[in-house]
Fold this protein.
Amino acid sequence: MNWKSFVMLFGAVLITASVSAQANLLNAKTPSDIGVKTAEQLLADNDKPLPYGYVDDRDILWAKVVWEYIDLNERLNLPYYYPIHENSTSSNRKSLFATLLQGVKDDQLTEVYDDSYFTTKLSKREIEAKLFRVDTTDAGKDELNAGNTDIEEYITRTELKPHDIEGFKVKSMWYFDKRQGEMKARILAIAPIAPDVQTKGRQELEDVAEKLPIFWVWYPGARELLHNMKVFNEKNAAYPISYDHMLNARRYNAIIYREENIYGNRDVAQYVKGNALFQVLESDRIRESIRDKELDMWNY
């Protein structure tokens, strides 16, 4: 056996061990054993998000904060949208929105804010108010006026579901690390975008309803949660990819809709008005200026 055959055999053993440790599917005696690791596997498990390296402020030679929009209608971004129905897949596969929302409900995510500048922190009750709407029909109001308090049949409840999410906004910082001599990007916050729940189901308002961020999540505090939730890998189902890996590797297509600027960080749409094509071109110009900055650092 030559060294190439040995390397291939060793790799196959590692793959087999990883698959078994990942879901325990082939060793399960009952369906309830699927995904349950043994005590030995838990001790040997070192499956954690890759920690960020420390970056001193003096090592940052240049930096710029940008805001991007990930449109979930684009094919490349579909892994962040699906699955949209609960109980349609295993418990460790949820859409990105469902993952973030579950983290809020389970108190795994506590750094949740109303804006991307992290000025107003949201409570769990305030977040729920952005997801639900309760309406009472006219007949129900008449029953209340008549003194009848049992009007459950006259109440309609509207809720934002994963299939209502149209995109995500991401706040990132691009910086040139002079110690390592390269341009890098670090995600700071992420927000799901959906129509206002107050206009959902109202035909006269849906066409003009604004798409709003439901909440902004401080991304470094959500990495553990996003690492534990896996994304379906179309090329190899034995190796699912985590949301944390996908986002940090920038495996998505997005447009820049805002950058840090002297005009109060105004959006591109505020100074390139009425022309979607020119807005996309402006977004590409901002992106190219960031890429060119890395090349400029090496020119004397």
Summary: The chain has two domains: 1-47, 57-124+159-297. Confidence is low (pLDDT under 50) at residues 4-22. The longest strand covers residues 182-195. The radius of gyration is 24 Å.
